[in-house]
Write a structure and sequence with these properties.
This protein is an alpha/beta fold and 563 residues long. It contains 15 helices and 18 strands. Among the domains are: 55 residues, Oligo-1,6-glucosidase, Domain 2 (Oligo-1,6-glucosidase, domain 2, Alpha-Beta Complex); 70 residues, Golgi alpha-mannosidase II (Immunoglobulin-like, Sandwich). Helix 6 packs parallel to helix 7. The structure holds 1-deoxynojirimycin and calcium ion (CA).
Length: 563
């Protein structure tokens, strides 16, 4: 099989996100690796996806599991070698799968050579100018240069031996690059081309909203009382959505477009990670025609299970991105979010005013897994009906839950460590995948006996790939059916038309010849009023449901005229 010759492949692609550390472990050290992925591509291709996205696999001290890059031109030894990477790309392409990498431009690791050079070169040096080094405030410079807080807890500044401070939006181990510095711009141009030359088909781009800072780095305004510490960075107007960031993205688009022109047949895509918290006006800026190809709409992922919030998330994204000619990019899960089965099963899931921030941390409410699973099933049918592109996160297709009760000593997420346990962080959605029922091999995660890097809960094997593959009622069967139904829709139709507005308990729209209806309430809804030709249920998230006249609670259906 070869790659489809489609320059706009990404506009309606289904992309499968692999958290490299947790997908499959070929050498049995308990850590996922590139060879593990290569060995399991048949499973991924059979799901019916068009591309994979690999989370960062570069050499890294793994303080933030690869989002702290020590060398942008290599492969983390625990994950393999450049040869393993080349083999993986070749095998993906042979399976008809494109490959997106993950690039981290806002910051690197404090073990990156440039940062080490900056430390030894001292204040005022060209080496320090690649980062944000500043003198402190206070009589002896003992106070940070400003009041900014880090996204993962604590101040956004760390002091070094000679008394200066450096800025880090995330953790002390992730110094921010200064993008006004020409060396930084030039290095990343080289990084992009290096991986394009190795066959990569594009990048997910990390933390784009944080790149670019207000000149002079002024103090941020006071935070509203009660703001969670990990929400503070997301409210700092001087380090968020700063306009100079867009100069970088315009430049990157030129680099990408030029590469395509110079390499006929290559079709590249970039997708921006931008949390814009119900600000579609901000979101759309990242996909103006000369910036990224795609930007995730996280408003849907972060919307509580309520018809009004779900409708608003879809509608505002559709309108905003449509206004700049961009296609939509949806996801229900990723490696930073509580898994949807758990999220939608939370006691506060139906409160339209809950979950105002990025929902990384909730652990204080009861979870009903049966309800959560029904809703996650419904959400997947909704997702597949939306125009644009969809991103799935490994294990979502198995209906895995967030592992909420990981022992404290097993947790590795810097959010947990930096907040001293006040926030649980994201380990719970990163537990290694179950492939079989054999606990000795980490439920088939490893190719032989092993101890996976995060402990898997007992019974993890009940949702193993091997188990679900033999069960027509499993989440896996639903995902396969849903993706096949989506692939059968007429291509290129990106129009969504809202339907049944008087039934406010529904999220209902027509698209590409089907009527997609989500009932996000606990009460059955009658659809008698549809009238017109005879209709049939093409797809339902509820097993055994085939009556087009009703939508059961927490269910999503696709309906179309018979014939
Ligand atoms: C967003 C990534 O998805 C997350 O995992 C990471 O911790 C931060 N950016 C910092 O790079
Ligand atoms: Ca391994």
């Amino acid at each position: 099989m070869t790659l489809p010759e489609d320059p706009l492949w990404w506009r309606d692609a289904v992309v499968y996100q692999m958290y490299v550390r947790s997908f499959a472990d070929a050498n049995t050290d308990g850590i996922g690796d590139l060879a593990g992925i290569t060995g399991r591509l048949g499973y991924v291709a059979a799901l019916g996806v068009d591309a994979i996205w690999l989370t960062p696999f570069y050499p890294s001290p793994q303080r933030d599991h690869g989002y702290d890059v020590a060398d942008y031109f290599g492969v983390e030894p625990a994950y393999g070698t450049l040869d393993d990477f080349d083999r993986l790309v070749a095998e993906c392409h042979r399976h008809g799968l494109r490959v997106l990498g993950d690039i981290v431009p806002n910051h690197c690791s404090d073990e990156h050579q440039w940062f080490r050079d900056a430390l030894s070169a001292g204040p005022g040096s060209a080496e320090r100018a690649r980062f944000y080094f500043r003198d402190g405030r206070g009589e002896n410079g003992e106070l940070p240069p400003n009041n900014w807080l880090a996204a993962f807890g604590g101040p956004a500044w760390t002091r070094v031996c000679d008394g200066q401070w450096y800025l880090h939006t995330f953790t002390t181990w992730q110094p921010d690059f200064n993008w006004d510095n020409a060396d930084v711009v030039e290095m990343f141009d080289t990084v992009l081309r290096f991986w394009f030359d190795r066959g990569i088909d594009g990048f997910r781009v990390d933390a784009v909203t944080h790149l670019g800072k207000a000149p002079g780095l002024p103090d941020a305004p006071p935070l509203p009382p009660g703001t969670r510490e990990t929400d503070a960075a997301g409210r700092n107007p001087y380090s968020l959505y700063w306009p100079s960031g867009h100069d970088v993205w315009r430049h990157w688009r030129q680099v990408t477009d030029r590469y395509e022109r110079d390499h006929p047949g290559r079709h590249l895509a970039t997708v921006a990670e931008a949390y814009t918290a119900n600000r579609p006006d901000v979101l759309l800026q990242y996909v103006r025609p000369d910036e990224f190809h795609q930007v995730f709409s996280f408003d849907l992922m972060l919307a509580p299970w309520h018809p009004s919030t779900l409708r608003r998330a879809i509608d505002q994204t559709y309108t905003a991105l449509g206004s700049v000619g961009a296609s939509m990019t949806w996801a229900l899960n990723n490696h930073d979010s509580q898994r949807s089965v758990t999220r939608y099963g939370r006691a506060d899931a139906t409160d339209p005013d809950s979950w105002t921030g990025n929902n990384l941390v909730y652990h204080d409410v009861a979870v009903d897994v049966v309800v959560g699973t029904a809703r996650a099933r419904a959400a997947s049918v909704l997702l597949a009906g939306l125009p644009g592109s969809i991103y799935l996160y490994q294990g979502e297709e198995l209906g895995l839950q967030e592992v909420l009760d990981l022992p404290a000593e097993a947790r590795t997420d810097p959010i947990y460590l930096r907040t001293e346990g006040r926030e649980l962080g994201r380990d719970g959605c990163r537990v290694p995948l179950p492939w079989t029922t054999d606990p000795v091999t980490g439920y088939g995660f490893s190719a032989g006996p092993s101890r996976p890097w995060l402990p898997q809960p007992e019974g993890w094997g009940r949702q193993a790939v091997a188990v679900e593959a033999a069960d027509d009622d499993a989440m896996l069967a639903l995902y396969r059916t849903v993706l096949a139904a989506r692939a059968a829709l007429p291509a290129g139709d990106e129009t969504l038309t809202w339907q049944l507005p008087e039934l406010t308990q529904l999220v209902a729209f027509s698209r590409a010849g089907v009527l997609v209806v989500l009932n996000a309430t606990g009460v059955e809804v009658q659809l008698d009023r549809l009238g017109g030709p005879e209709r049939e249920v093409v797809l339902s998230s509820r097993r055994g449901h085939s009556d087009p006249g009703v939508v059961p609670p927490d269910t999503c259906v696709w309906i179309r005229p018979v014939g």
